[in-house]
Amino acid sequence: MSSRRMTAIAGSLVTASFSAVMILPFTATADDQGPGSSKGGKVVDEAPAGVKLTTLLPEKISVDNSSKKTAITATVKNEGTEDSGDIRMWVVGFDGLEVTNVQGCSAIAEKDLPPGSNSGFNCAVGNLAAGKSKSYDVSATYDLSKTGKICLPVQTADGKKTFWQQGPVPFGTTNPSPNAPATPLLLGTDNQPVAPGGDELPKTGVGRDVLPLGAAGAALVAAGAAGLWWSRRLPRARQN
Fold this sequence. Notes:
Layout: E1 3-5, E2 36-37, E3 41-43, E4 53-58, E5 60-64, E6 69-78, E7 86-95, E8 97-102, E9 106-107, E10 117-127, E11 133-142, E12 148-156, E13 162-172, E14 182-187, E15 232-234
Antiparallel strand pairs: 1-15, 2-4, 3-13, 4-6, 5-14, 6-11, 7-10, 7-12, 8-11, 9-10, 12-13, 13-14
């Protein structure tokens, strides 16, 4: 069992609980997806002196219209002058974007996912030296009839502090291509599915401004890129 602690950022609320899983870090590369971006990211808890942690997501991805599969590169970077210490990164999917695998990372049990999310993985980054970064290949599916978001919190290995959180930030398009082999999506863009009819994709998902989280009293309100905050369950130290 573990106690819950809540940290508020910009007036938004979400309750989330995670189970700590010890895994080995694994770096990976993916196809070129354009330059990385920290859009939708913010500092949560203050990092140690000389440590500056951020994450990067591709500015564009592509979804196969038949399989609904897509690939995303998630990068954690230490832009500071000192080593980060032992850290971990979560990769969490929301709404139409479901994370199916992150190489070298461990799946978060369904009961421990944050309210409103549908999938998540825990990546044990380890100690990240000053100026260094680690990238992970993320496999996902995207239901283009819905909106889709992803979130990358960076925490201490024990989960007691969250130094940085990117998202939940959307991938989407304002110009769907249901009859094309693939649909390109842009980071920071709300997905706008086409209207029903013919071979077009129906719009069945909830909008980004209405996000049911399923837990009594829990709400996650996206007020632009800044109105976000992350809560987490503080796992007791447990070494296997």
